[in-house]
Structure formats: structure tokens, C-alpha cells
Amino acid sequence: MTYPKPLFTSATPTPAPAVTAVAVPPARPPLLPELGRRAKAVAGVVIPPVLTLLVVLVAWQAIVGDSYTGLPSPKQVWLESKDLILHPFYDHGGVDKGLFWHVFTSLKRVGIGFSISAVCGILLGVFVGSNRWAHRGLDPIFQVLRTVPPLAWLPISLAAFHQANPSALFVIFITAIWPIIINTAVGVRNIPSDYVNVAKVLRLSPVEYFFKILLPATTPYIFTGLRIGIGMSWLAIVASEMLLGGVGIGFFIWDQYNASRIADIIVALAWVGVTGFFLDRLVALIGHFVSRGNAAS
Questions:
Q1: List of residues 6+ apart from 91 with CB closer than 8 A
Q2: What is the DSSP string of 38-75?
Q3: C-alpha span between 294 and 297 (Å, rounded)
Q4: Residue 67: which residues within 8 A CB-CB, separation 6 or more?
Q5: Is residue 264 within 8 Å of 273, Cβ to Cβ?
Q6: Which of 91, 156, 171, 242 would be 250's cystine partner, CB 3.0–4.6 Å?
Q7: Helices and strands in the chain, H and E counts
Q8: Which residues of 7-24 are buried (b: 16+ CB within 10 A; e: fewer)?
Q9: Are 217 and 191 in contact, with CB atoms under 8 Å apart?
Q10: d(Cα 10, Cα 6) in Å, to the nearest integer?
């Protein structure tokens, strides 16, 4: 008796049920707590200096009082210089202009003089930092010249250029260039040896080494020098304009002193301080973006 041979068929695999991936949007933080957190951060930055300024003004008013001799009180500054404060854009021709135009003229001079000193200072700093003999020969001279006060350069610039505006630009240039040179040279000398060895292994050309190794490594040092230089430029232009005359915030302060308008001088000093602060923050912001956060802010 024979039995039928069983037939085995291969099992057909059953497809797994398709799983559709659903993209889950990232959870967003609640709007109101986020706004509250940012408002708290802004208030922490703004409120302390505002309160300090109010305390200083109140103490100043209490000490000086309403005396019309000597230093005017904040109340007298407001009463005597209200038009100057509220109308900074008037222009009656000549030197009879609002404070905005005086500051704007000074800023143009600082922009030209500082730009020239930045280019020359960075190039000289790279040369001094990368060449040992140049560093030994030039660095002592730079260390001596950087201690010369800005106004001490003014007679030399007047003798050389015979005109007020080029003389002011030279004073800005010669005042701002030293910190730029010194900080750039320090940055070049502090380039890590690993970077230099990588450049040798890759056989980078001098141009490639400058843009791919030297410049990125020294950017924080360069912008430290630029921040010091822009501050010294602003100090130099105000001092030099007092002696050179014409339109400019320095001449305005000196002119008001000759007219015994101390209240106007106080308002002008506030403009000088605020403008210098924003110049410093502008260079720091540019350095932050260029160095990708490595420069000190």
C-alpha cells in the first residue's frame, strides 16, 4: 500500500503593514513665558544704568542747587540748552549748526583717518609679527611712539600739511595705528604651531596661508586693536578740533567755552560719550560676526 506523497508549497511572505512616518513638529515654547523671559533680560540690562543715571542727576541737582555761578545743575542745563537738545538737526550755515551736524563732521574725519590706520596697522602688524628681525627692530620704536599724546602730534602735522583737515586726519591716523599694529603682531606670534605645521604639510602658498591660517587665527587680536584704536581716534579728533576750528564737535565745545555756555558744553559731552560708546559697540559687533564669536564683545 502506497500513500500519496505530500506536496509542500513555499509560503508566500505576508507583507508587513506599512507604517507611515509622520513628522512631528518640534514643540514650540509657550509664547507668553518666552516674551516674559526676554523682557526680564532686557530690563536687567536697561534698568540698572537708568536708575544709576537718575541717582547721579538727583545728587547733582541737590549739591549744585539753583546757583547761577560755576557748574549748572541739570535743571539749568535743560532750561538753557533746551533748544540745542530738542533741535539737533538745524543748519543756519557756517558753524551755526545743530549738534548732529557737528558730530557727523567729526565722524567723517574719524572714518577716513581710522580706515587708513586700520589697513596700514594690520599690514605692519602682520609684517612685524611674522618676521623676527622686523619685530626686534620696530617693536621698541612702536612702544615708544604709542606713548606720545595725540595733541603732541598736532604741531608736526600742521607743519607738514599746512591745512587743518589733513592735519586732523593725520592725528587720528597716528593715534589709532599703534594698538592695531601691536595687537596684530601679538596675534601673529601666537598662531598655534599645529596650524603652521598643517600649512607646511599642505604646502599652502603665502596667499593661501594668509587667508586660510593667519587671518582667521589673528582676527580676535586684530579686532581688539581696532576697538582700542577707534576709541583713541574719537578722543584725538575732539581734542584736535578744539585747536583747528571749523565745523566739528571739538570746535563746538571750545566755542561754547569761549562764550561761557557751560550748559551747552555738558550737552555736547553727552553726545561725545554716547557716540563713542556706539562706535565701540559697532566695531565689537563686526568683530563678533567676522570672528564667529571668538572676538571679545
A1: 97, 98, 101
A2: HHHHHHHHHHHHHHHHHHHHHHHHHHHTT-SSSSPPHH
A3: 9
A4: 73
A5: no
A6: 242
A7: 12, 0
A8: eeeeeeeeeeeeeeeeee
A9: yes
A10: 13
Instruction: Look at 73-82, 88-97, 108-117, 278-287 and tell me which has the smallest mean pLDDT.
Output: 88-97
Tell me the three state secondary structure of residue 8.
coil
Residues 104 and 110: their CA atoms lie apart, in Å, by 10
Average pLDDT over residues 2-20: 53
Q: Is the dihedral of CA 172, 109, 92, 278 positive or negative?
A: negative
Q: Which amino acid is at 291?
A: S
Residues 6 or more apart in contact with residue 195 via CB below 8 angstroms: 213, 217
With left for phi above 0 and alpha for psi between -120 and 50, is residue 207 left, alpha or beta?
A: alpha
Length of the chain: 297
* Rounded distance between C-alpha atoms, residue 130 and residue 287, angstroms: 22
pLDDT digit string, tens, across residues 216-240: 889 999 999 999 999 999 988 888 8
